[in-house]
Amino acid sequence: MIDLLKTKKGHLMLIAIHLALGVMVKYAPSLVSLAYVGLFAWSAFDVIYTRDRGSRAGFYAIYLMGLEMIYRMAGAHFSWEMGKYVCILICLVGMLSGQRRYIAWNFLFLLILLLPSIFLADGPDSLDIRKKILFNISGPLSLVFTGLYFYRRQVDENTFYHSMRMAFLPAFTIIAALSVVANIATLQFTSLQSNPEAAGGFGPNQVSTVLGWFILLHLLFKVNKQQITAYEWLDWVILFYIVLRALLTFSRGGVMGSLLSLAAAVLVLTFAYHSFRKQLMKKIPYILAGMLFFVGVFFVANRITNNFLLYRYQGLTTTEVRTGVRLEERSILTGRDQIMRGDIEAFFDNPLFGTGYGMAVEYRAKYYGAAAAHTEFVRLLSENGMFGLLFMLIGMVWLPVYFFVRSQTPLTRFFFIAFYLLSMFTMFHAAMRLALPGVLFGTAFMLVKPTPKNTEEKKQPQLASSQLEKTA
Question: Angle of helix 284-304 relative to helix 232-248, nearest 10 degrees?
Answer without folding.
Answer: 40
